[in-house]
Structures
1.
Amino acid sequence: MSFTVFAASVMHETHTFSITPTTLASFKAYQYLQGAAIPKAMRGTRSEWGAVFDLADEFEWKMIHPLSAIAQPSGKVAADAFAQMLDLIESGLKAALPVDGVLLPLHGSMVAESHDDAEGEILKRVRALVGPDVPIAVSLDLHANATEEMAALADIITTYRTTPHTDMYEAAERAGRLLQRAMRKEIRPSVTLANRPVLSGLDRGRTIAGHGPMIDILQMVKQAEAEEPGVLEIGVNAGYAWSDVPFTGPTVLVTGDGRKPAYKDVAERLAEHIWTTRGKDTVHLISMEETIRIAAEKRPAGAGPLLIGDYTDNPGGGGHGDGTNLIRALIAAGIEDVVVGTMADPQSAQIGLNAGVGAMVTIDLGGKIDPRFGGTPIRLTGKVAAVSDGIYVRKGKFATGTTGTMGPSFLLDMGRIRIIVATHRTQIDDRQQFRIYGVEPEKANILACKAMNHFRADFEPMSRKLIYVDSGGICSLDYKQFPWTKLRRPIWPLDLA
Ligand SMILES: [Zn+2]
């Protein structure tokens, strides 16, 4: 017997202190696919949708999928944009009823102007339409700020288990396989949540360092899944700290068969690890002075590039992506053979594109969104070395095969330093982002990247060293500087030691 499965995806990581609004245009600039356009773009990729369509083939599901929307992390999602996406989901579901199951790949830390818990609202609307007995499965990003409402409304929740995220496919696949079992009535799953008063923890979810709290807790998860009767899946979310909502922070989500008090015990036991390891970070940001000192060291023969992660200005974490402090310091120090990817500045990008390849241009680059964070505009003169539509297909291990876009853009060549000047705010996550401008990233002395974690999958293996600079961007780890009003208190590290 084949089932009818409704699927929809809306993903946004909302930096509630960012003044960059997240509008429908923000989604359309990144991904806004409807109906048949979704399998056309996503089939065969290592994304959640790649898993959804593979499972649909395997189990012969009849699929209804009205929407897949993703926007670059930024400020709160505009109320009208969220309403329009909810409407597409609700009307698509109404037209499809009755359905046997629901599969929702969500991020889990989206905040709308109208709703602090945007995913909770999506689930509420879907649950209201399908009723209490149709199983709903959700897959989440590891940086979800999961809520009690989400746990109560969903029957199954899975979470990525890698940062950089290289297992989006696997997380959705686990959700889909459990959904199939629930639709066949082999299981009657429920979700139990536990957390601790911690704003940011579990080493921000990093699994690449080879050690650290996230790796340890995933080991504990494996054991609990094997040993605890009825436990089907345990999701561990590291949370997303720059979000002023009551429930921000790491969580443990236990999906178990039926409802048993033992699931709460398992969740609480694991959540204790969130508390005991608070403050244990495998990544430390260094000062601009220290960064420049390391950048000035001579490159050993045959060694790959020095990777500088411009952590606090990473658009992938909600940063503006147009901060100039690092560029200013690299130029002032006369550092040789630097490539910067990418500066978000649509006005400057247009100047380069209008001038064309080979032309000399002078631009006031960056510092336009909110110069209090990351630096003011910097006047630069250089040659337009290459132009591009900014579209790239990922070849590295992060989201392999999916398409990203930096938008209309050009490579500014100033001799010692080359800078990708792009229309969209985009983190660096794949070497293709350099290659489309004719840059061979392996050959550069220094790659200065607006990035935190995901770029490590493709870049770290070929680099000689990775350092992270605090350039004063909005993804600062000094949480006390932000004007918190909604966050639950007391909480570590703001109030508790
Ligand atoms: Zn994430």
Note: The mean pLDDT is 97.
2.
Amino acid sequence: MSGVAIVTGAGSGIGRATALRLAADGYSVMCNDINGARAAIAADEIKAAGGQAAAIGGDVSREADVAALYAATLETFGACTLLVNNAGHVHQAKFVDLAPADFDRMFAVHVRGTFLCTRAVLPAMLAAGKGAIVNVASQLGQIGGVELSHYCGAKAAIIGMTKSLAREISKQGVRVNAVAPGPINTPLAMSLSPEWRKAKAAELPLGRFGEPEDIAATIAFLASDQAAIYVGQTLGPNSGDVML
Ligand SMILES: NC(=O)c1ccc[n+]([C@@H]2O[C@H](COP(=O)([O-])OP(=O)(O)OC[C@H]3O[C@@H](n4cnc5c(N)ncnc54)[C@H](O)[C@@H]3O)[C@@H](O)[C@H]2O)c1
């Protein structure tokens, strides 16, 4: 597999694993993260393993940062053929305690960030008549979660946006899909309360959380030609937590 991939939030967890996996599959990978130093470490790991990578810091919710990400990718590797909208954070609060600023930030990073990055890469993909976009949602966007209204709302919005864009552009050669992971062993999941994690692990049919590499494999599949007829789908690597 060859191509040029942008992975947002590539400095940690699922994004890092995805960047490494795509590079191993033959992609040139631009690693974005709001923590530029961590993005650079991921790119260095890829290069140390013989892959092609570069890094740029930036906040996906900021138009100027996304423009810089797109420009750096074009200049370094050429036109982006795969975008993985992965950057995100989690925050727990009872609905009545949810501050508007926390709500706005959640939607800015996840929904606006996905919109801005997609809008940046899409014209060139459409002009070329090929490309793939994989959005990282969450199973919590499908089933909801206690004290996670803003997170779940944002993830459900990403699923809706994925379906809508897929309906709009698939005939032009660009495929858009989403992945809705269950609980995965990353720093993000570790930031949720120990009570939540314990209860969640106990109820999983598989009996354990997934690993970032499990999600990277799903993303690599959705990006590949093997997924040629996957359009607007939301795949669920989730330890059996949600069965649709
Ligand atoms: N870990 C899970 O259980 C789980 C489950 C379902 C979905 N997800 C989703 O997977 C994605 C990756 O999460 P993770 O678990 O790997 O978390 P993580 O915290 O390990 O990694 C997220 C990365 O995104 C970066 N980031 C955050 N905000 C950003 C922004 N505005 N611009 C650019 N980069 C930003 C962070 O700095 C971090 O490096 C997120 O969208 C998350 O919601 C995670």
Note: The domain at 3-235 is CATH 3.40.50.720 (Rossmann fold).
